[in-house]
User: Fold this.
Amino acid sequence: MKRFYILLVIPFLFNCAKKQPEVSWLIIEPWQLVANPEVGPNDHGELTSNITEAFVNMDGEIVGTFSLPAKVPIIGDGAHDFIIIPGVKNNGISATKRRFPFLKQYSETINLVKNDTVQMMPKTMYFEELTFKIEDFEDAIINFEEGTGSTASITKGDNPEYLKWGNSYGEVHLSDSNAFLSIVSEFVGSLPKQGAEVYLELDYINTNSVLTSVISYGNGTYFDDPFIQLNPQDNPEWKHIYIDLKEIVSTRSSSPFNEVSFIMNLDEAGTNKFVYLDNIKVIHL
Assistant:
C-alpha cells in the first residue's frame, strides 16, 4: 500500500511579523511669540498669545498637524528642512484648528538621529503690514461706550492678584443691583470686506458668561450680530482667544463701519460675578 504524507507548513507568526521601521523623534516645544523688529515697540501691543497648534512640513512634504508640545515620529535621519506654521483653536473651539493668517512661519534645518530625540523651539511674530486697533486699558479714557439699559459699568482694575500686563485691565462686577452691561468699542471703525481676514484677540477672566458681537453700521444700515460666547470659568485665570470676524464683517458689506461689542447679563440671581478684559485687539491687513 502506498502511503501519502502531507507536509504541514506552519508559519511562525513572530518571525513573519513585519519589522517596525526605525524612527527619529522630533520634540516640538510650545510656540514663542516674539516682537517683530521691523515695527515700533508698541505697534502690536502686549504679545499675549495662545498658539497651540503646529502644521509641520519636512522637505516640502506634509508631516501633519500637532498640538504642542508634541513628540513627532519621523521615518529617516540626517539633515532635513522643516517649516512649522502656527495654528490656533479658531473661535476657541478645540475641534476647529486653523493656520493663523497673521503670524510668520518658522523654518529650521534639523539633523535627525534614528532612535533618538531632537528638540525644536519654534518662534513666530506678527507680519509687518498688519493694522492693529487696541484697547489695553492703559490710557486715561476707556474706549468703550456703555449701552442703553446698562446697570453695571466697566472701570479700570489693578488688583495685584490678577494684574498681569501694564498698569490696569478692564473690570466689570455683576450683582442683583448691577446685573446688566452692554459695551461697544469706539476704536475700531472701518474694516476690510470681501473675504478679508479680520480677527478679534483678547485676554479675559470671567466668572459670568460674556457674549461677543459685531456692530455694523453706516449708509443707513445698522446690524448687531451676536457671535461667540465666553463661558464662565470655574477656576478663574487669564485666557486668550482668537475670534474670526471675517464672515460677519464681509456679510455686512453695505455697512462701511464696524465695532465690537460685549454683553454681560448676570447668570444667576443672588450671586456676585466678575469679568476682566485686557489686550483687546482687532487685527487686519
